[in-house]
Amino acid sequence: MKIILASQSPRRRELLELLGLPFEVKVSDTEEIMTSTDPGEVTKELSCQKAEAAAETIEEGVVIGADTVVSLEGKILGKPENREEARKMIHEIQGKSHNVYTGVTVIEKRAGKECSRNIFSEKTTVKVASMSEEEIEAYISLPEPYDKAGGYGIQGSFAKYVEGMEGDYFNVVGLPVHRLYDVIKHLSDK
């Protein structure tokens, strides 16, 4: 069974490697369109768009699309485009808990036809310690915040500010490994 990851995220590639299954990466430049404001639904919509675009290019295989957002009190925090946005995001999340949602779409195709589709969103709650102005400035001086939803990478130097979490750590990094493994495992049962 050929597996295709429809994501350019190096972190998702690393996490998918944990499953021990060979895969290739096929990224499309599909325009991301959001029709919902609910963070979990947004991630499902965007993961589905990515998976569908990649699935159109294959005859056989399993395509995995994923998207991650950070949500604070219902507001979605994307990737900061500059230092000021990064500073604002870190100010907003420090000293509080927020939710991280990763939506995943798994599309299986055989003989050019879609034979199954599984779409889900996983939520993890992350508690960030209070941070001083100096700590925030030091963190946003790194390259780390600028390609990550919410302006931080839990697997990087921001880890020292994470007081705790409820849910799947890998979900915060960008792919709920166990839940995805469970979906793929049950595909082979069919």
Structure description:
With 190 residues, the protein is an alpha/beta fold. 32% of the residues lie in helices and 29% in strands. It contains 6 helices and 7 strands, in the order βαβαββαββαβαα. Strands 1, 2, 3, 4, 5, 6 and 7 form a 7-stranded mixed sheet that branches. The model has no long low-confidence stretch (mean pLDDT 93).
Summarize the helix and strand pattern as letters.
EHEHEEHEEHEHH
Largest sheet: 7 strands, mixed
State the end-to-end CA separation. 12 Å
- DSSP helix fraction: 25-40%
Task: Indicate the structural class.
Answer: alpha/beta
How are the elements arranged and paired?
Blueprint: E1 3-5, H1 10-17, E2 24-25, H2 39-55, E3 61-72, E4 75-77, H3 83-93, E5 97-110, E6 113-128, H4 133-140, E7 162-166, H5 169-173, H6 177-187
Parallel strand pairs: 1-2, 1-3
Antiparallel strand pairs: 3-4, 3-5, 5-6, 6-7
In a nutshell, what does this entry contain?
By secondary structure, the protein is α/β, with parallel strands linked by helices. It has helices spanning 10-17, 39-55, 83-93, 133-140, 169-173, 177-187; strands at 3-5, 24-25, 61-72, 75-77, 97-110, 113-128, 162-166.
